[in-house]
Amino acid sequence: MSVLDAERLHTVYRLLLAEYGPQHWWPGDSPFEVMVGAILTQNTAWTNVERGLERLCDRIPLQARAILSLPADELAECLRPVGYFNVKSKRLRAFCRAYLEAGGLDGLRALETEELRRWLLRVHGIGPETADDILLYAFERPVFVVDAYTGRIFERLGMLAGNPGYEAIRHGFETALGRDVPLFNEYHALIVRHGKTLCRRTRPLCARCCLRESCPAG
After folding, report:
1. What CA–CA distance (Å, rounded) separates 69 from 50?
2. What span, in angstroms and rounded, lies between the C-alpha atoms of 59 and 6?
3. What is the C-alpha to C-alpha distance for residues 144 and 192, in angstroms, rounded to an integer?
4. d(Cα 85, Cα 92) in Å, to the nearest integer?
5. Is 169 left (phi over 0), alpha (psi -120 to 50) or beta?
6. Are 89 and 99 in contact (CB under 8 A)?
């Protein structure tokens, strides 16, 4: 893994922010809605998650007990727009059961960040990226979210090499940037925006990229 230099990371952040502006992430009216959204957005576009949440909220309040009270087949049907709806309905029900057993939002808020992360990773269907989405956006903990866009962009910039893995990349960003929740929030959102808009997996639009002058791949 190449060294994630703090000065260069901040430069990339400033260029992305100047290009795209604040992203106002994560959409959601409550921490619980952010958690649900993080689970449902796995392998699907956010627009599909919004449609699924709208269908669900037309039936019941967006609360853990209400979700568990809905028959499994009806919950799956509400979530049909999100893709893999049968799998995701099972994951959402598993999360809601664990959430209530842990004492709900207050119970989880009382946990230290590493303990809360371990708790999330024990819940069926929650992996590191989803757990860190929840930690950062629902609980405002200083955890940097790593996704496929992060690996792609910073590998092309020459700042990551050798497929170091999720935890090594996360630790590298957190060490270089410090424990800065607002920065982590905005940086991750900007990375996603840039990865979707210009730094695509195939046919990246390098000529329009605000990072091209310091990008060996460009």
Report:
1. 21
2. 47
3. 13
4. 10
5. alpha
6. no
Give me the CATH code for the 6-24+144-214 domain, please: 1.10.1670.10
- Asked if 142 contacts 181 with a C-beta cutoff of 8 angstroms, the reply is yes
- Predicted TM-score of the model (pTM): 0.94
Residue 124: exposure state from Cβ atoms within 10 A (0-12, 13-18, ≥19): exposed
CB of 166 within 8 A of CB of 1? no
Whole-number Å distance between alpha carbons of 39 and 33:
10
Nearest to 140 by CA among 7, 50, 28: 28
Q: Which two tokens stand for residue 7?
A: 């000065």
**What is the domain class of 31-138 according to CATH?**
mainly alpha
Q: Domain ranges in the chain?
A: 6-24+144-214, 31-138
Q: What is the pLDDT of residues 141-169, one digit of tens each?
A: 999 999 999 999 999 999 998 889 999 99
Query: Which residue blocks in the chain are alpha helix, DSSP H?
Result: 6-20, 31-40, 46-59, 64-69, 72-78, 85-101, 104-109, 113-122, 128-133, 148-156, 166-177, 181-197
Bond prior to 26 in cis (omega within 30° of 0): yes
Encoding tokens for residue 131?
A: 């757990």
CA dihedral 145, 151, 155, 156 (to 10 degrees): -100
Task: Give the separation between CA 201 and CA 2, rounded to whole angstroms.
Answer: 21
Kindly report, residue by residue over 45-99, the tens digit of the pLDDT: 999 999 999 999 999 999 999 999 999 999 999 999 999 999 999 999 999 999 9
